[in-house]
Amino acid sequence: MRLTRYFLPVLKDNPAEAQIVSHRYMLRAGMIKQQAAGIYSWLPLGFKVLRRIEQIVHEEQARAGHIPLLMPTLQPADLWRESGRYDDYGQEMLRIKDRQGRDMLYGPTNEEMITDIFRAHVGSYKDLPLTLYHIQWKFRDEMRPRFGVMRGREFLMKDGYNFDLTKEDALHAYNRHLVSYLRTYERMGLQAIPMRADSGPIGGDDTHEFLVLAETGESEVFYDAQVTDIKLGAREIDYDDKAQCEAVMQEFTSLYARTDETHDVAVFDAIPEERRKSARGIEVGQIFYFGTKYSDAMGANVVTPDGGKVPVHMGSHGIGVSRLLGAIIEASHDDKGIIWPEGVTPFHCGIVNLKQGDADTDAACEAMYKALQKAGLDPLYDDRDERAGAKFATMDLIGLPWRITVGPRGLKNGVVELTSRRTGESVEMTAEDAVARIVEIYAGI
Ligand SMILES: Nc1ncnc2c1ncn2[C@@H]1O[C@H](COP(=O)(O)OP(=O)(O)OP(=O)(O)O)[C@@H](O)[C@H]1O
Ligand SMILES: [Mg+2]
After folding, report:
1. Ligand 1 pocket residue status of 285, Cβ below 6 Å
2. How many CB atoms lie within 10 A of CB 406?
3. Contact, 108 vs 93, CB < 8 A?
C-alpha cells in the first residue's frame, strides 16, 4: 500500500474522551471511529489488525480440530425461552421486535443456537466428539461501555462449543481449548495467564479466564510470580493426545492464579511472600465446562453405544477478538505510539522516502516496495511529500515493527537504514539485504 492512496485519518491531538493508552492510540492512528457509545466503525488500519487476529484464531482452532461455521447476529427469543435465559439475562440483552411482533434479540452469546443446530442434526455418539465455533459480532448493552474496543457494546468474539458423550471427553475438549488458546495468545505476542474464575450466568463447574497483566485491566488478579515463567513456546502438541493436553493444562493451572471472584486469602498466603503478586489484568478469553445444562433444557440427546439415550456434555469457550487489539496495545507501546508484535502487525514494514521526487530515491523505494510484495509481504510505503519528522512520527504512531528509511545521502553510499520499532536500533545495509532481512524475519511467523 502507498500511503498517498490509503485511508489513514491520523489525529494530531489526543482525543479527550480516551482514558487509556490503547483507546488513545487506536483513535489517533485512525484505526476506529466511535459511532455510538461502545459501537465502532473499523477503519482500514484497525480492520487489518482485526483480520490478522481472526486469522490466527482460525489457524489455531483448525490445528485443534475445531470446525468453523457462522451463526446470525439476530436470534429468536423462543430459543432463549427454552433455556430460561430470556428472563435471566437482564438489561445487557438487546431485545428487538420484528414487524410481525416476534421477539428477537441481538445475540450476546450462542449456547442456545448451537444446541439447536446440534439437536437438529446429531443423534448418535458416532458423530462425537464435535467442536463447532464461529467468529461473530455480539451485542451486550453494557452499563458502562468504555476504554474503546476493550469494553464495547458491539464486539467481535470467537465462541466455540464442544459436544461430547462423556464428562471425561468434554474435559479433554476443555483442555484442548486451554492449550490452543495459549498458543493463540503467544502468537499475538501476548502472555495470557489462565486463572481460575467464577462461572457467572453461563453456569458451570470448571472455568478459567485468560488474563493479560496490565495496569489498566478491569480485573483484580492474584498469582504466584512463577506462573509468568511458564511458556508454551514451540513445543509440538498432539491435540488428540488426552494425556498431553491434560499435562499442559496442569502445568499452566497448578500454581496459584485467580481473579478476585475466586481469590482465597488462606491459600494465597501459603505461597512464599516474595512470590505473592497482586495486579490488574485484561480478560481476553474464557473457557467453560458446563455439563448438560443446555442439552437437558433443550433436549439435545445422543444414542449411546449400548442403545441408551443421554444428554450431550458441553462447554463453551470464548476469545475477545476485538478486545485483543486493546490488550495488545496496552501490553506493547511507548510514548510515541503502538509497537505491533510481528504476528498481528497491519503492515509488515514501512518504507520511508526521505526525499520524495528525487529520482534515485523514488526508484530505490519503488524497487524495495515491489520486491517485498513479490516475496508475499505487505509493506506500507510512505510516498507523501512530507518532512522526514512527520513521516517518522506517523510510522512510530501506527507501530509497524520494522522501518526501512531511504534517502539520497545513504544511497550515495549504497545503503538504506533498517530500524526496529521496538528497540529503536538502526542498521545500515544495502537495499537487497534490507529486503532479505525482512523476508527472513517473517518467514517463521
Ligand atoms: N463488552 C465487551 N467488549 C469487548 N470484549 C468483550 C466484552 N465482553 C466480553 N468480551 C470478551 O469476550 C470474551 C468471552 O466472553 P465472556 O462471556 O467470557 O465475557 P465476560 O466474562 O462477560 O466479560 P467481562 O467479565 O469482561 O464482562 C471475554 O473473555 C472478553 O475477552
Ligand atoms: Mg468471561
Report:
1. yes
2. 26
3. yes
Q: What is the pTM for the complete model shown?
A: 0.97
Phi and psi torsions of 391, nearest 5°:
-65, -45
Q: 3.30.930.10, 3.40.190.10, 3.40.50.1110, 2.40.50.40: which CATH number matches 3-338?
A: 3.30.930.10
- Cα dihedral across residues 240, 244, 247, 253: positive or negative: negative
Q: What is the DSSP string of 370-403?
A: HHHHHTT--EEEE-SS--HHHHHHHHHHHT-SEE
| Topology (CATH level 3) of domain 349-443 | Rossmann fold (3.40.50)
- Whether ligand 1 lies within 6 angstroms of the CB of 158 is answered as no
In the reported structure, the alpha carbon of residue 283 is separated from the centroid of ligand 2 by a whole-number distance in angstroms of 7
Phi, psi of 416 (to 5 degrees): -120, 175
* Tens of pLDDT, residues 289-323: 999 999 999 999 999 999 999 999 999 999 999 99
Please give the distance, rounded to the nearest whole angstrom, from the Cα atom of residue 113 to the centre of ligand 1: 19
Q: What residue owns the CA closest to ligand 1's atom 23?
A: 283
Residue ranges per structural domain of the chain: 3-338, 349-443
Contacts of 292 (CB under 8 A, 6+ apart): 311, 312, 313, 314
The pLDDT of residue 393 is 98
As a whole-number percent, the residues of the chain with pLDDT over 70 amount to 98
Query: Is residue 283 lining ligand 1, measured as CB closer than 6 Å?
Result: yes
Which ligand 1 atom is at minimum distance from the Cα of 157? 12
Nearest CA residue ID for atom 22, ligand 1: 200
Rounded Cα–Cα distance for residues 232 and 220 (Å): 24
How many Å apart are CA 162 and CA 120, to the nearest integer?
A: 16
- Does any ligand 1 atom lie closer than 6 A to the CB of residue 155? yes
**Which residues, 6+ apart, have CB-to-CB distance to 409 below 8 Å?**
none
